[in-house]
Amino acid sequence: MSPLSMFEVYVLLAALASLVSAALAVKVKEDFYSAILLGLTGLGVAALIGLLGYTFLAVFHVMVYVGATVTFVVFGVLLVGRGAGFEKRMGVPALAVSALLAAALFSLLSTSKPTRVNIDLSSAASAILGENAVALTLLALSLASLVIAGIAVASEER
Amino acid sequence: MIDMMAEIYFLTSALLAAVGAYGALVSRSAIKALISLEILFNGVVLGALALTSSSASLGGFILVVFSVVLGSVEVGVLVSILVLLYRRFRSVDVYQVPGLEVVE
């Protein structure tokens, strides 16, 4: 058996980091630490995306997902305080459902053979701004709804 | 890419989705359920990219760009709803919301 290359070691470390932080995010009692661990999961997933060859997408994931979304969750947790614990009666059914989901997803993904990609950014940009201009407009409108939601929270009378 | 690397990507994606689904099902806290669903989202995004990386088209790349942005919007709106929920009921425990109480 040949020793692992540095690339394989990076992939293994990123996978391990994202899985451990995801498991801790679900297991930990405090919602604040859970939100911070979600950020670490996002970073691990971004590293895996980058190692797959989607470097632009990895940076985008860190900036938009970890930088904006997770920060929003962290400050949301600061506003609402402590969590509410776990529903113990759901343990076994939830374990069964999640095991089935993992098996289904793994068997679906096993049909493909991932390869390292090399994205041409200019063609990606023209595809987003040209062919998918309508989707981009709808996305901008949905971002506007986020601003409206923020204003609704800020202006709620006590 | 050798097969072991492919399996690491598939396993990570499937396990992240499973961990997220488990957390969403067992959490009483609405915030924790949201965080768990975000973990599930991360797993599915990774799986989608691994699935489409063998194709020459940019479809998977564009889909993930749009879904990450849309995911951010969804989280923003949901956190706003949860803050409003907390202000109204002083709790984010889903079983304390009127109409969602546990019936013995």
Uncertain stretches of chain A: none
**What is the terminal-to-terminal distance of chain A?**
66 Å
Mean pLDDT of chain B: 85
- CATH homologous group name of the largest domain in chain A: NADH-ubiquinone/plastoquinone oxidoreductase chain 6, subunit NuoJ
Total number of β-strand segments of chain B?
0
User: Tell me about the biggest sheet of chain B?
Assistant: none
Summed up, the domain count of chain A is: 2
Structural summary, described in words:
Chain A has 158 residues and is mainly alpha-helical. Chain A has 2 domains: 6-86, Four Helix Bundle (Hemerythrin (Met), subunit A) (Up-down Bundle); 120-158. Chain A is 77% helix and 0% strand. Chain A contains 6 helices and no strands. Chain A has helices at 6-27, 31-51, 55-80, 91-109, 121-131, 133-155. Chain A is globular, with a radius of gyration of 20 Å. The termini of chain A are far apart. In chain A, 28% of the residues are buried. The mean pLDDT of chain A is 84. The N and C termini of chain B lie far apart (54 Å). Chain B is built from 3 helices and no strands. With 104 residues, chain B is mostly helical. Chain B has helices at residues 3-26, 30-52, 59-89. In chain B, helix 1 packs antiparallel against helix 2 and helix 2 (30-52) runs antiparallel to helix 3. Chain B is elongated, with a radius of gyration of 17 Å. The longest helix of chain B is centred in the last third of the chain and has 31 residues, at 59-89. Helix content of chain B is 75%, strand content 0%. Chain B has a single domain, classed as Helix Hairpins (Orthogonal Bundle). Classes of the chains: A mainly alpha (158), B mainly alpha (104). At the A-B interface, helix 1, helix 2, helix 3, helix 4 and helix 5 of A face helix 1, helix 2 and helix 3 of B.
